[in-house]
Amino acid sequence: MSNGGRVQGKVAFISGAARGQGRSHAVGLAREGADVIAFDVCGPVEYSGVPAASADDLAETVELVEKVGGRIVAGQADARDVDAVREVFERGVGQFGRVDVVVANAGIQGLASATADDSEDNWRAVLDTNLTGVWNTARVAVPRMVAQGEGGAILLVSSSLALKAAPNFGAYSAAKHGVVGLMRSFAVELAQHSIRANSIHPTTVPTPLLLNENNWRIFRPDLEKPQLDDVIDLYRGINLLPVPWVESEDITHAVVYLASDEARYVTGVALPVDAGMSIK
Ligand SMILES: NC(=O)c1ccc[n+]([C@@H]2O[C@H](COP(=O)([O-])OP(=O)(O)OC[C@H]3O[C@@H](n4cnc5c(N)ncnc54)[C@H](O)[C@@H]3O)[C@@H](O)[C@H]2O)c1
Questions:
Q1: What is the CATH number for 78?
Q2: Count of domains forming the chain
Q3: What global pTM score does this model have?
Q4: Which residues line ligand 1 (CB under 6 A)?
Q5: What's the pLDDT at 218?
Q6: Distance from the CA of 192 to the center of ligand 1, in angstroms?
Q7: Helices (DSSP H) in 161-262: which residue ranges?
Q8: Is 38 part of a structural domain of the chain?
Q9: Do 238 and 280 meet the contact criterion of CB atoms below 8 Å apart?
């Protein structure tokens, strides 16, 4: 990966940064010269369907960012709680003086079920984090970006399940489709301020969100204790290119590009990084 300062001097606000893709984006943007303001819930989210991230995970992200020479302000906040999100944001802007990039990345998988049979609690939990939490993360930063008068980039992390449906993920798919509507709304409203908005659509990525027994059981309901070996060929079957997944760094490459001035005329785009999954 280059360290050519592709986002030098910019400040990036990132949600869900304790691990997985969010951590990779924090490190990747820092490596390219950005200062980072990061938050994560650092604890369980009801109906998330995945093991919880911890405060230690977020501390490790801080260490990794500093190791590549970056500066970071990090805090614990739940994306569903706009006041908590704003507190971390203001603390970061207090330190770095500005914000140029938002990466609304925090998300949960939710529990799988046939869409008509989904529980109201699961439905709400998934919509609250994956759609309202994304809105909260962007909306606390927008007024500051507008006031700066120097443009900016809003990146909303969606999924290939916003471009294509799969059985038993109705709430997730609906929330991720909703993210596209949110992205396009920001794009048309904020273009007059040279603020761009785009969404990114990963296929399978080997983070805790994917690599957990709940997920494996969805693919292999016939097994009591499915393991990765039991599902890896099924993951490969999802994608057009012959890979079971793309790496977090592959998503980070798209994030760095869209955050940088190289993408200065790219807005309103739903960008798949999906090994062809959405056209298979
Ligand atoms: N892993 C995949 O296969 C995959 C595929 C497509 C899209 N995505 C999306 O990518 C994004 C990142 O996921 P990941 O793969 O890194 O998963 P992950 O579970 O490793 O990381 C998600 C992070 O978000 C945090 N988080 C969850 N709910 C939160 C909340 N309410 N407030 C604040 N933080 C919260 C978690 O604590 C965790 O640190 C998500 O939006 C996910 O839906 C993932």
A1: 3.40.50.720
A2: 1
A3: 0.98
A4: 15-16, 18-22, 40-41, 45, 50, 53, 78-80, 105-108, 129, 133, 157, 159, 202, 204-205, 207-210
A5: 85
A6: 31
A7: 170-190, 213-219, 228-238, 248-259
A8: yes
A9: yes
The stretches in the chain having pLDDT less than 70 are 1-3
Note the pLDDT tens digit of each residue in 136-180.
Answer: 999 999 999 999 999 999 999 999 999 999 999 999 999 999 999
Q: Which atom of ligand 1 is nearest to the CA of 45?
A: 28
Instruction: Provide the 10 A C-beta neighbour count for residue 179.
Output: 24
Domain assignment present for 214 = no
Which ligand 1 atom sits nearest the alpha carbon of residue 109? Answer: 43
Instruction: For residue 241, tell me if it sits in a domain.
Output: no
Please report the pLDDT score of residue 2 as a whole number. Answer: 54
pLDDT, one tens digit per residue, over 65-77 is: 999 999 999 999 9
257 is catalytic: no
> Residue 66 sits in which domain range?
11-204+247-279
Look at residue 3 and tell me if it is in a domain: no
Cβ atoms within 10 Å, residue 229: 8
Q: Which residue out of 47, 172, 235, 257 is catalytically annotated?
A: 172
Nearest ligand 1 atom to alpha carbon 133: 31
Q: How far is the CA of 194 from the centre of ligand 1 (A)?
A: 28
How far apart CA 105 and CA 277 sit, in angstroms, is: 20
